[in-house]
């Protein structure tokens, strides 16, 4: 496992295809598989091999907001043998806007990444804060300085008939509506 800087907060990550590493990541955070781990990617094209299909809405949002603070929930490719938690056949994907994170993701491939903190505690905005919470449970801490704004990503679920904003964060709902050219429901 590695702690890495992102454009939102520091994350704790591992190989998305190593089920044992993902379980260890969840244990280090103090949470269970009922809260699945998102996957970070280092390029737009990486998602083509991870999901069943990339809908037009997903492509439009990716072109507008990646890399950046937008996470997309899509149906994952059935051929993948990963275990990210109780995902019900979906995966949440994001491409962070941080040079250290992007370089790492391009070198190692998709990573299961969650905020670098113990469950219930504030997310770390520095490598030192992450190390205070996670200690020796993580072997590598990449220090990229203070992370970007402590604002979570906006999450848009594209698994249903219409886009659904699950959480508003770094990207405003109005921006999502503008890119898609229509109204978008917000979970509430």
Which helices and strands occur, and which strands form pairs?
Blueprint: E1 2-4, E2 11-15, H1 19-29, E3 39-40, H2 56-65, E4 70-75, E5 90-94, H3 99-108, E6 111-115, H4 127-134, E7 140-141, E8 154-157, E9 164-167, H5 173-180, E10 185-186
Parallel strand pairs: 1-7, 3-5, 4-8, 9-10
Antiparallel strand pairs: 1-2, 2-6, 3-6, 4-5, 8-9
Structure, described:
This protein has 188 residues and is an alpha/beta fold. The protein has one domain (2-186): DHBP synthase (Alpha-Beta Complex), CATH 3.90.870. The chain is 25% helix and 20% strand. It has 5 helices and 10 strands. A 10-stranded mixed beta sheet has the order 7-1-2-6-3-5-4-8-9-10, with helices on both faces. It is globular. The protein starts with a strand and ends with a strand.
Report a brief summary of the structure.
Belongs to the SUA5 family. This protein has 188 residues and is an alpha/beta fold.
Number of helices: 5
Number of strands: 10
Helix-residue proportion: 25-40%
CATH evolutionary superfamily: DHBP synthase
> How many strands, which pairing sense, and closed or not: the largest β-sheet?
10 strands, mixed
- Could you tell me the mean pLDDT? 93
Radius of gyration: 16 Å
Enumerate the spans where pLDDT stays under 50 for 5 or more consecutive residues: none
Please tell me what the overall shape is.
globular
Structural class: alpha/beta
The rounded distance between the terminal residues' Cα atoms is 34 Å
Instruction: Based on the coordinates given, report the CATH architecture.
Output: Alpha-Beta Complex
Widest β-sheet, arrangement of strands: 7-1-2-6-3-5-4-8-9-10
CATH topology: DHBP synthase
Strand proportion: 15-25%
Give the class-level CATH name: Alpha Beta
Q: H/E order of the elements? A: EEHEHEEHEHEEEHE
Keywords: ATP-binding, Cytoplasm, Nucleotide-binding, Nucleotidyltransferase, Transferase, tRNA processing
Main location: cytoplasm
GO cellular component, one term: cytoplasm
Catalytic activity: L-threonine + hydrogencarbonate + ATP = L-threonylcarbamoyladenylate + diphosphate + H2O
């Amino acid at each position: 496992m590695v702690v890495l800087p992102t454009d939102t907060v520091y994350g704790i990550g591992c190989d998305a295809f190593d089920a044992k590493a993902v379980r260890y990541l969840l244990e280090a955070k103090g949470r269970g598989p009922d809260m699945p781990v998102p996957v970070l990617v280092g390029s737009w094209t990486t998602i083509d091999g991870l999901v069943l299909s990339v809908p037009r809405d997903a492509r439009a949002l990716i072109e507008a907001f990646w890399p950046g603070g937008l996470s997309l929930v899509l149906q994952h490719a059935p051929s993948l043998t990963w275990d990210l938690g109780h995902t019900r056949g979906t995966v949440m994907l994001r491409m962070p806007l941080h040079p250290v994170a992007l370089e790492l993701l391009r070198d190692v491939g998709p990573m299961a990444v969650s905020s670098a903190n113990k469950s219930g505690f504030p997310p770390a905005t520095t490598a030192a804060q992450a190390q205070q919470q996670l200690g020796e449970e993580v072997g590598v801490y990449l220090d990229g300085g203070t992370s970007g704004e402590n604002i979570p990503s906006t999450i848009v679920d594209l698994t249903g008939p219409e886009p659904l904003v699950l959480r508003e964060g770094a990207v405003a709902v109005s921006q999502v509506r503008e890119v898609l050219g229509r109204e978008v429901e917000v979970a509430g």
